[in-house]
Design a protein that fits this description.
By secondary structure, the protein is mainly α. 79% of the residues lie in helices and 0% in strands.
């Protein structure tokens, strides 16, 4: 009986520890409920604080940990999301957890780990078409189209053949592998089902081009240009097809448009202005004059000052003929009744320069 007091003390200690554990679980549960209330009104900021407090109160609370990870993903802190998911026991990782892993790794460009979780999802939850399409897109954009083909083909044959997102990635994987004969009917079907956009028509045109069917290549590349006339490469490929069909006037038009759209006109104007300034600073006057000619060609507002600047550079480069020409154009364009004082001073200088050469 001499051990009875020790046994009683240990028993009471166990009861106290059990009570404290139960209290912690209760506290964590209440905090989690408060977090849920915040999430019901899309208040992620305060929900995250409640879930974090819940996890601190009971580190074994998987539900609070999972919800905290989801909050981190919603706020863009993908690494924190992954860290919290890592603290969930492996045998408790479910479908939603795998999705959070996948999208978080995808968001931080950790493609190999994203692919791992994507494969886990398609293996255990094969009907998750969002992941199938996204994983296939990842494979297509990382030069693994054969993996994309395997992923999408398995879904199409075993689950659903009508999902357009999956079919689009499947068709694209075939195109990337130069399997044009297989890709062509798929793209035609996608277009018929409503995906009649630039990308579908462009790739279909390129498939026909790859099969040396120039007439159909021209047909679909033309449709692509109708939907997006600012794609320099598409305009170039269309012009190549038209040249092959001896449609020379159209080919010339589209070759020129391809050049014009290679760099937007507004950006070209900025670039040529910068070039002119740099050439002037380094006393390369002939190059500066040429740059100002390009500024004139690309400025839709046709500012008279551009002609004055070009004239000054040609004067500095001793090209008197071109200097005179641009001085006369400047005077003609700038000599207006409403000209401001700075323009009037430039007009005075331009006239003196012309008269000096007479």
């Amino acid at each position: 009986m001499k051990h009875t007091p020790l046994i009683i003390a240990l028993f009471l200690l166990c009861l106290a520890n059990s009570a404290r554990a139960q209290q912690r679980q209760c506290d964590a549960s209440l905090l989690s409920q408060k977090g849920d209330s915040c999430m019901s009104i899309h208040d992620t900021f305060h929900a995250m604080q409640f879930y974090l407090a819940g996890v601190n109160a009971d580190t074994t609370n998987v539900d609070a940990r999972r919800k905290l990870a989801a909050c981190y993903r919603k706020t863009g802190n993908h690494q924190a999301c992954i860290t919290n998911l890592d603290r969930i026991p492996a045998d408790s990782i479910g479908h939603d957890d795998m999705r959070m892993y996948y999208y978080s790794y995808l968001s931080i460009d950790s493609n190999d780990k994203a692919a791992y979780w994507g494969e886990q999802i398609t293996k255990h939850y094969p009907y998750d078409s969002d992941i199938v399409a996204s994983l296939a897109s990842l494979y297509n954009t990382t030069n693994k189209p054969e993996r994309a083909e395997q992923t999408t083909k398995a879904y199409i044959t075993q689950c659903d053949s009508t999902n357009m997102y999956v079919n689009k990635e499947y068709a694209y994987s075939l195109y990337l592998q130069l399997k044009y004969d297989e890709a062509i009917p798929l793209y035609k079907k996608l277009i018929a089902q409503g995906a009649d956009n630039y990308t579908s028509n462009f790739i279909l045109g390129m498939c026909y081009d790859g099969n040396y069917d120039t007439a159909n290549a021209q047909k679909y590349l033309e449709k692509a240009v109708e939907k997006n006339g600012n794609s320099s490469y598409c305009l170039y490929r269309l012009a190549m097809a038209e040249e092959g069909l001896v449609m020379d006037s159209l080919a010339l038009e589209h070759f020129n448009r391809s050049l014009e759209t290679a760099i937007p006109a507004s950006r070209q104007l900025i670039i040529y202005t910068k070039l002119a300034s740099l050439h002037f600073v380094h006393k390369r006057y002939a190059q500066a004059a040429r740059a100002f000619q390009l500024v004139i060609a690309h400025d839709p507002t046709d500012k008279p000052l551009n002609y004055y600047n070009a004239a000054q550079m040609f004067l500095a480069a001793d090209d008197i003929t071109k200097a005179d020409m641009y001085l006369k154009i400047f005077i003609d364009k700038a000599d207006k009744p409403d000209a401001d004082e700075s323009t009037k001073k430039l007009l005075e200088t331009a006239r003196k320069q012309l008269n000096k050469k007479k």
